[in-house]
From TrEMBL:
Record's GO cellular component terms: dynein axonemal particle
Keyword Cytoplasm: yes
Function: Key assembly factor specifically required for the stability of axonemal dynein heavy chains in cytoplasm.
InterPro entries linked: WD40/YVTN_repeat-like_dom_sf, WD40_repeat_dom_sf, WD40_rpt
A Pfam family reported for this protein in Swiss-Prot or TrEMBL: WD40
Lineage per the UniProt record: Eukaryota, Metazoa, Chordata, Craniata, Vertebrata
Protein name: Dynein axonemal assembly factor 10
Single biological process term from Gene Ontology: apoptotic process
Start and stop residues of the WD repeats: 133-146
Keywords: Apoptosis, Cytoplasm, Repeat, WD repeat
Length: 358
């Protein structure tokens, strides 16, 4: 029998109460700082920067913005600049220099309605090719932006004429392992998951998981597609093996029910792509490890390759709050360090131990 202490532990290092609703929190790369994004009770937006110092989170900068801010990413910036791209409730995409965050360095009216989700690639030395930002909105569209190109998106994935517009809740980049290839995955409120191939400007694959898709994330953005995790409303998540696509069956997957409440987010550990954390609607965090099958692909009766799904093991879980934990971000620099924020108007810095022995 292994003792409980031999498993990874999820420890709250710092807990900070905020005077506003926080929707997203992100580590600032190569620093001991993190940024919180949200809105004040009056409806205006807020960007706060904190520095972790001697066991405390010290507020070093706060800026108020006209519109509530929903989401942010550092994924399309250089390590030297570390500009954050944000999406707000009015459909705006802004890029901010956190040293001088009063005026955006890039601004575009990206969508007609709220920007629910944002992701970046091609920056921070992650992923080949151009620095790009993808936004998904309640208006049903998914758009890809190049900050070097003003006003118009480089790609726009929207419903066909006459198709129902579905609320896009989540977007993620992947497959950016060379200068030509790149994919965007999007999840919608009706359970649709769509994989767009940006190289061929085509819909490569779609499926439906029968429940609103809250979050999708590839285990790595900058490799040949390996795994994709999709989380949903009623406590279920799906892990798709993205290496083998069958012409009719698509990608093999395994699903797991974590708990009864919504799984708001999934985030893969930067130092180990087979470990990921899910954040729950009842204030809980679950740490998982994916185990590969003996063979990742086999031949079907027609001799065509079909993927084989692995299994998922729960390493640890903890309840931090009675309210949903809506965002989580691992530190890219220190293994096991993460920041998460919830609808209890709190931000927490956590330490997860023993990740190198699981």
């Amino acid at each position: 029998m292994s003792s409980p202490l031999s498993k990874p532990q999820i420890i709250t290092h710092i807990q900070k109460s905020l005077n506003y609703t926080v929707f997203d929190s992100k580590w600032i790369p190569c620093s001991a700082k993190f940024v919180c994004l949200g809105n004040f009770p009056s409806g205006t937006g807020v960007i706060q920067i904190y520095e972790v110092h001697q066991g405390e989170a010290q507020l070093i900068k706060e800026v108020e913005k006209p519109k509530a801010i929903k989401c942010g990413t550092f994924g399309a910036t250089s390590l030297q600049q570390r500009h954050i791209a944000t999406g707000d409730f009015d459909g705006n995409l802004n890029i901010w220099n956190l040293e001088t965050p009063d005026v955006p360095v890039y601004a575009v009216k990206a969508h007609k309605e709220i920007v629910n989700s944002i992701d970046g690639v091609g920056g921070l030395g992650i992923g080949d090719g151009a620095p790009e930002i993808v936004t998904g909105s309640r208006d049903g569209t998914v758009k890809v932006w190049d900050p070097r190109q003003k006003d118009s998106p480089v790609a726009n994935m929207e419903p066909m004429e006459g198709e129902t517009k579905r609320d896009c809740w989540t977007v993620a980049f992947g497959h950016a392992f060379n200068d030509q290839d790149r994919c965007v995955c999007a999840g919608y409120d009706n359970g649709d998951i769509k994989l767009f191939d940006l190289r061929n400007m085509s819909l490569r694959w779609e499926t439906n998981i029968k429940n609103g898709v809250c979050c999708v994330e590839f285990d790595r953005k900058d490799i040949n597609m390996n795994k994709l995790v999709a989380t949903s409303l009623e406590g279920k998540f799906h892990v798709f093996d993205m290496r083998t696509q069958h012409p009719t069956k698509g990608f093999a997957s395994v699903s797991e029910k974590a708990h009864k409440s919504t799984i708001w987010q999934v985030r893969h550990l930067p130092q180990n792509r087979d470990i990921f954390m899910t954040t729950g609607g009842a204030g809980n965090l679950h740490l998982w490890k994916y185990e590969y099958p003996a063979q990742r692909c086999k031949k079907d009766s027609d001799g065509v390759d079909v993927g084989v799904a692995g299994s998922v093991n729960l390493l640890q879980n903890v309840t931090l709050s009675t309210q949903p934990i809506a965002s989580l971000d691992w530190s890219p620099d220190k293994q096991g360090l993460c920041v998460c924020s919830g609808f209890d108007q709190s931000v927490r810095v956590l330490i997860v131990t023993k990740l190198n022995i699981v």
